[in-house]
Automatic annotation (TrEMBL):
Keyword Phosphoprotein tagged: no
UniProt motif 'HIGH' region: location: 12-22
Protein name listed in UniProt: Glutamyl-Q tRNA(Asp) synthetase
Binding site for Zn(2+): 101, 103, 127, 131
A molecular-function term among this protein's GO annotations: ATP binding
Pfam family name, one: tRNA-synt_1c
GO biological process, one term: tRNA modification
Span of the signal peptide: none
Cofactor: Zn(2+)
């Protein structure tokens, strides 16, 4: 299948070299683009400079090149795109979807504790709404997206409802109405963003851009039609759908692939000391790619060269996933 409209991307954060988990995501996004006859891009997500060691972006690009996962256009860096994020934030501010927040994490924890909320490890801290109706004399430090206001008012327009369905008591306009979307790997998904996350950050107190805003702006500006990434990021999708609707952007299709786990069930990650994939020899390159393919449910095959192996996995991917490209469709009832 050839689709000139298909554009995918791999968007690593240069906080460390590629490891087994991030390589699975890279290979999956590359295979999906190749199976569709589309374009594959690489975007370096370096909007948090303190976490990005110097030269790590080039190391990731070196690893990808050694594995013959080469983008179809020069890579782009988020650190060069601050103006686009500022424009998007201004648009949200003008439309009333963003408001300043002076809460520290300690403030949030105290407010949530007063509400009887028990924080789970690795779970979200839903914003308690302290600054939603004003700063009360405090100085604003960050900007948040007004999730409840959006879900309560904007979904009527987002869902293209008629005037009768846009009544204030229509179920689509109730705040506890979860967002629904279709994931190409995980199937039907839903989340009540207001309850699960609350009003999420768009720009941090230190002036750095939040991931949610940056990735939505970047995907739209680069014309990304399909986002293929690890399942640990599936939880971010509803926030990104809300932002896309608020900014008048088309939602890409989403596919969240299985994670590489450690023996204790934790996700393999740079923060937990995941070793870099070794790509210095043909044997190493074939080994790490075969392992990644197996995590994606693909047969290792008997190919002796990287091009042959990648071609075989592309054919397998096309047979398994090419028909599973239903549009996300954004938030639906």
């Amino acid at each position: 299948m050839t689709s000139s409209a298909y554009t995918g991307r791999f968007a690593p954060s240069p906080t460390g070299p590629l490891h087994a988990g991030s390589l699975v995501a890279a290979l999956a996004s590359w295979l999906d683009a190749r199976a569709h006859g589309g374009t594959w891009l690489v975007r370096i997500e370096d909007i948090d400079p303190p976490r990005c060691p110097q030269g790590m972006d080039q190391e990731i690009l070196r690893q990808l090149h050694a594995l013959q996962l080469v983008p179809d256009a020069p890579p782009q860096w988020q650190s060069a795109r601050h103006g686009l994020y500022a424009q998007a934030l201004a648009q949200l501010q003008d439309a009333g979807w963003a408001y300043p927040c002076a809460c520290t994490r300690r403030d949030m924890d105290a407010a949530l504790a007063a509400q009887g909320y028990l924080h789970e490890r690795h779970g979200e801290r839903p914003y308690p709404g302290t600054c939603r109706d004003g700063l009360h004399g405090k100085t604003g430090r960050s900007w948040r997206f007004h999730t409840q206001r959006y879900q309560h008012h904007a979904l009527a327009e987002a869902a293209d409802l008629d005037q009768e369905a846009a009544r204030p008591d229509h179920p689509l306009l109730q705040r506890d109405q979860p967002l629904h979307w279709q994931d190409r790997w995980l199937g039907p998904m839903q989340q009540d963003v207001a309850a699960h996350v609350g009003d999420f950050v768009l720009q941090r107190a230190d002036g750095l851009w939040a991931y949610q805003l940056a990735v939505v702006v970047d995907d739209a500006e680069q014309g990304i039609s399909d986002v293929v990434r690890g399942a640990d990021l599936a939880d971010n999708t509803p926030r990104q759908l809300l932002l896309q609707q608020a900014l008048g952007l088309t939602a890409p299709r989403y596919m969240h692939t299985p994670l590489v786990l450690q023996a204790n069930g934790e996700k393999l990650s740079k923060g937990l000391g995941a070793p870099a994939v070794m790509v210095d020899s043909t044997e190493q390159r074939m080994g790490v790619l075969r392992q990644s393919a197996q995590y994606l449910g693909l047969e290792a095959g008997n190919a002796s060269t990287l091009p042959d192996a990648l071609a075989g996995w592309t054919a397998q991917w096309a047979r398994r996933h090419l028909g599973n490209t239903a549009a996300t469709g954004g938030p639906v009832p």
